[in-house]
Every structure is written in C-alpha cells, then in structure tokens.
TrEMBL record:
Belongs to the LysR transcriptional regulatory family. Keywords: DNA-binding, Transcription, Transcription regulation. Residues 7-64 form the HTH lysR-type domain. It comes from Paenibacillus marchantiophytorum. Pfam families: HTH_1, LysR_substrate. SUPFAM superfamilies: Periplasmic binding protein-like II, Winged helix' DNA-binding domain. This is HTH-type transcriptional regulator YwbI. It comes from the Bacteria. The keyword Coiled coil does not apply. Signal peptide: none annotated.
C-alpha cells in the first residue's frame, strides 16, 4: 500500500456494494450517489494504492487479488462500524450507558433513594453503579477517575472539581436520655471536654472535622469507638457508651426513646453535602445527564 493512502469507511462501503450487487450502477443507486461518483472514488483509490481492485469483463465486475483482500476485511469492519453507530445513537438518546456514583452512607440512605428511582424511571437503560464510602475516600475516587461523580462534604478543592450544593445542615450533639446534658436546649462545644466520643472512622470527613473543632476550643477529643454506620453510632450512644455528633437531618431518624439531639454552638460545625466531578477529563453523556437531573432536584 502506498505512502499516505487514505482508506476510509466510504471506500469499504463502495467496494462492498459493488461486490454485493455486481454492478457499479446498482451500487451507486443503493448508496444514493451517482455512478460517476462511485467510479471516480474507486479509480482514485486504485491510483493511491497503485493496484487494480476490479476487472471489467463486459457487464461482469470481478475482483482482483487486491480487491478480494479489501472485500474480505470490509464485511467485519462495516459490521463493527454499524454497531458503533448504534451504540453512539443509544448514548446520544441516553438509552444506554452507566454512571459510577460515590455516596457517603448518610447521604445514600437519606437523600438519594427517591432521586435514583426517579432517574431510573426516566432513563431505564442507564446502569447506576454505587460505591458507598466515606467522603474522604469518595473524593479520592473522583480525583483518580475511579468514579464519575461523588457526594462529599464542603469545602472542596475548587481547582480540581466542579460542584453544586446538595444539602446544607449542621451537626447536633447526640446524648443518651440519662446524660447530664440531656435537659439542655443547646450545648457549647467546650462542655464536651470530658466526654467519651463515638466518631465515624478516618475515611469520613467528619472524623477530622470534629477533632479539629475540639482542638480549636482547647481540648483533645477522647475517642472510644469508631464506626462507618450512622445508625450504629446512634445505637451505641443509646447504650450509654459515649456521645456523638451527627447532622440534624440524620438525628431526626434516631430513636427518641433512647437518645436526644441537642444543637451545638460556639462553635457550630457545618455539614454541607456537595456533588462533585472532575474539571479535567471525559464525562459521559449519562453522567452529565445525572448531574443535570440531580441539580434540578436539589438546587431551587
């Protein structure tokens, strides 16, 4: 094959149709082009390849060895090309595709089941793959491309991620009903100086955030248990194993016969969920539609 030869999909279609119909004229009609157009394209290709592809014997069109080689490969290539076009069409109309979403346990259990249901009703062909982990881990997964989008806690690295706000909340102190602070209307952080803390593990952003807040008012949090499950943390508080801090939204799901949630102040600790995705790199059509869909629901 000569240097600089351009053999594109049109050439394969032309050769295939000429062979199938045994006629330049019929091939041109089938391809909705003129007979001179297809003849010129084949002549140009033969000139570029420096070989003949067809021999004309009266009305008969026969393949040369070079023509047979191209025809042999044309069929599977054209079949794959048709599959590719179908796949791209499906993706364009969001009939097919997948999204990898990272959700912290608190966000996944309480904010997204209904959202995912509505999304799947509208886009039945899109597969959603969920990874449930702490916000720190999820941010790492989004950054390295392991997942498409993730829910993390604000603040974020704005130079790396695009985002929008999902939920704005604050932490409350969770104490057992028998606790000495249970009767208070609000609790100042310094009042927890001698308490036993039950925290999320270090994969969760709240782990370091609570420790940092305690240090800011002059004491080191005494951590006695760590967990990855908010409901288990609530149960441990109810069993009088320590105190904890959880977002107000989650506190409403705890058993009021076992624990009490009390507002925290001086300082308060914000809990703001963000949907994030990488600024750089490819984002699939399905993932972009998920971002648009969830933004319409959460951002008024």
């Amino acid at each position: 094959m000569g240097r600089g030869v351009i053999l594109d999909i049109r050439h394969l279609q032309y050769v295939h149709e000429i062979v199938r119909l045994n006629s330049f004229t019929k091939a041109a009609q089938a391809l909705h082009i003129t007979q001179p157009t297809i003849s010129k394209a084949i002549k140009n290709l033969e000139a570029e390849l420096n070989v003949e592809l067809f021999t004309r014997d009266g009305k008969q069109v026969k393949l040369t060895d070079a023509g047979q080689a191209i025809s042999h490969y044309a069929v599977p290539i054209l079949h794959l090309f048709d599959q590719l076009q179908g796949e791209l069409k499906d993706l364009t109309y969001l009939n097919k595709g997948s999204i990898r979403i990272g959700l912290p346990p608190m966000a996944g259990a309480n904010f997204f089941p209904s959202v995912i249901k509505k999304f799947q009703e509208q886009y039945e062909g899109i597969t959603i793959k969920m990874i449930e982990d702490g916000a720190n881990k999820i941010q790492e997964f989004v950054e390295d491309g392991s997942i498409d989008v993730g829910v993390v806690l604000s603040p974020i690295q704005e130079e790396l991620f695009d985002s929008f706000l999902l939920v704005k909340d604050e932490l409350k102190v969770i104490v057992p009903l028998t606790h000495k602070l249970a009767s208070q209307q609000q609790i100042e952080l310094i009042e927890l100086k001698n308490e036993r803390f039950i925290l999320f593990n270090s994969d969760f952003t709240l782990h370091d955030r609570i420790i940092t807040a305690c240090r800011s008012v002059g004491f080191e949090a005494q951590i006695v248990y760590e967990s990855s499950q908010w409901d288990f943390i609530g149960e441990m508080v109810g069993a009088e194993l320590g105190i904890a801090m959880l977002p107000d939204t989650i506190c409403q799901l705890l058993n009021p016969e076992k624990v009490k949630a009390i507002p925290l102040f001086n300082p308060s600790i914000p809990w703001q969920l963000m949907m994030v995705w990488r600024k750089e790199g490819y984002l699939s059509l399905a993932a972009r539609e998920w971002i648009r869909f969830t933004k319409d629901i959460f951002v008024e």
